[in-house]
Amino acid sequence: MSKLARPRLLILGCGDVGMRMLPLLRGRFRIFAVTSQAARSDELRAAGAVPIVADLDQPATLARLARLARYIVHLAPPQPDGLRDCRTRNLTAILPDATTLVYVSTTGVYGDCGGALIDETRRPNPRNARALRRVDAEATLRAWARRSGSRLSILRVPGIYAADRLPVERLQKGTPALAPQDDVYTNHIHADDLARIIVAALYRGSPCRAYHAVDDSHMKMGEYFDAVADAFGLPHPSRLPRGELEQTVSPVLLSFMSESRRLSNTRLKTELGVRLRYAQVDDALAQVGQIARAGNFVPD
Fold first, then answer.
1. pLDDT (tens digit per residue) in 265-291
2. What is the rounded CA–CA span in Å between residue 264 and residue 107?
3. What is the pTM of this model?
4. Which of 114, 257, 274 is nearest to 179 (CA)?
5. What is the distance between the alpha carbons of residues 176 and 258, in angstroms, rounded to a whole number?
6. Residue 23, exposed/middle/buried by CB under 10 A (0-12, 13-18, 19+)?
7. Would you give the DSSP letter of residue 215?
């Protein structure tokens, strides 16, 4: 199939995960990538995408996106304040009918679950403005999909990691972690696996269906930090009771330490047919550790 005859795909928020997606998609689609930074145009073009300079905060710049593509991957985060995702609302105002859209949301929509194992039927219960904006985005997109006859898949994503996306600097600074009795469960997905999950959702996602884009590991946050420290030969972080830790870490970091949940990925595997390349965090860290010990990897 010639390049011009391929179906068109639009990526909004083509950062690290978007760039990992491009090699998986450029032979199947003619890809357009939206960026608000004109300086990124050459980088996107070299990776196989047609760059489009537009800004989801500026509705007047979005007119050229209308009816541009029938396949859309929405990776753009909400604006950093407020309780509504104005960027997603601006986007849905110009989207065509009968579109396939994959939205990358966050597992933070569930709030604190007390460490319980949950699936996608769990009702969202956001506890901060950041998560409220994501819930608003999901609701806005569901309403648009039903109204327009479009196929929407929502991927709820936890902490994304990769060899260059690990908390090494945090460990080097000696930032403490929670004491075991106060620690919380966290969830993870490798950036390469997330890119593959998005591609699977484009083809196999069911209409208005949510999926947990998470791996198989059920780790507490301190255990994760210890595992990364071991991979790089760094000391484990000290552990403090919650009351003491609240006096030493930022409010943003503390908010992540205040929610505990474990997420089932059964729907991801059975409905999207995803086979994770890095099913456990330890699988990826073993590779990173080998490279680090050989002196061929220096963390940012």
1. 999 999 999 999 999 999 999 988 677
2. 11
3. 0.95
4. 257
5. 15
6. exposed
7. -
Look at residues 123, 99, 121, 95 and name the one whose alpha carbon lies nearest to residue 109: 123
Helix (H) or strand (E) holding 91: helix 86-92
Per-position b or e across 132-150, b if 16+ CB within 10 A of its CB: bbbbbbbebbbebbeebeb
Taking residue 266's Cβ as centre, other Cβ atoms within 10 Å add up to 11
Which residues lie across from 300 on neighbouring strands?
none
Question: What helix, strand, coil percent values describe the chain, rounded to 5?
Answer: 40, 20, 40
Kindly list the averaged pLDDT for each block of 10 residues, start to end, along the chain of length 300. Answer: 82 98 96 96 97 97 94 98 98 96 98 98 96 98 98 98 95 95 97 98 98 97 97 96 91 90 98 98 88 60
* Number of other CB atoms surrounding residue 37 within 10 Å: 11
The pairing of strands 100-106 and 185-186 is unpaired
Q: How far is 293 from 300, CA to CA, in rounded Å?
A: 16
Helix (H) / strand (E) containing 46: helix 41-46
Amino acid at residue number 68: L
Domains of the chain, first to last: 3-161+189-216+263-278 (3.40.50.720)
Contact 77, 13 (CB under 8 A): yes
Concatenating the DSSP letter of every residue in 109-177 gives GG---TT-EE-TTSPP---SHHHHHHHHHHHHHHHHHHHHT-EEEEEEE-EEE-TTSSTHHHHHHT--E
CA angle 71, 190, 78 (to 5 degrees): 55
Alpha-carbon gap, residue 283 to 189, rounded angstroms: 12
